[in-house]
């Protein structure tokens, strides 16, 4: 009986003590768990350029793509050979005014 009384008397004290280590972030880590700030990684004028080609004669797969970005404007094109043997060429532009593309079949 005395053990239960001791447990009942001490449990509120144990539960009310502060839990150190929970909810405290070091000053160099933001709320998303990333080191630094989002302002350090933000680019006002993002730019990139990439391209690739796939040519697999055994599987008869032929694909190319190239894309460029300058700020808000993205331009690019991709080409592939469809199952009927036609070359499909798609040229596209995307930006604040939306997305547009043209398709050409050869």
Task: Describe the structure using short key phrases.
106 residues, alpha+beta, five-stranded antiparallel β-sheet, 2 helices
| Cα-to-Cα separation, first versus last residue | 91 Å
In which range does the helix fraction lie? 10-25%
Strand content: 35-45%
Rounded to an integer in angstroms, the radius of gyration calculated over CA atoms is 30 Å
Give me the side-by-side strand order of the main sheet: 1-2-3-4-5
Mean pLDDT: 79
Helix count equals: 2
Q: Structural class of the helix and strand makeup?
A: alpha+beta
Count of DSSP E strands? 5
Spans of 5+ residues with little confidence (pLDDT < 50)? none
Largest sheet: 5 strands, antiparallel
Shape call: elongated
List the helices and strands in order. HHEEEEE
How would you briefly describe this protein structure?
With 106 residues, the protein is of the alpha+beta class. The protein is built from 2 helices and 5 strands, in the order ααβββββ.
Describe the structure.
The protein has helices at 2-16, 38-41, and strands at 47-56, 61-70, 73-81, 87-95, 98-105. By secondary structure, it is α+β, with helices and mostly antiparallel strands. The protein has a five-stranded antiparallel sheet, with no helix packed on it. The protein contains two helices and five strands; from the N terminus they run ααβββββ.
């Amino acid at each position: 009986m005395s053990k239960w009384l001791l447990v009942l008397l001490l449990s509120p004290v144990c539960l009310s003590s502060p839990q150190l280590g929970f909810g405290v972030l070091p000053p160099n880590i933001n709320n998303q768990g990333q080191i630094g700030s989002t302002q350090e990684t933000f680019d006002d004028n993002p730019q990139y350029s990439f391209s690739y080609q796939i040519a697999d004669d055994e599987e008869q797969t032929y694909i190319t793509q190239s894309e460029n970005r300058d700020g808000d404007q993205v331009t690019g094109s991709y080409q592939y050979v469809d199952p009927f043997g036609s070359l499909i060429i798609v040229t596209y532009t995307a930006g604040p005014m939306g997305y547009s593309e043209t398709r050409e079949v050869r």
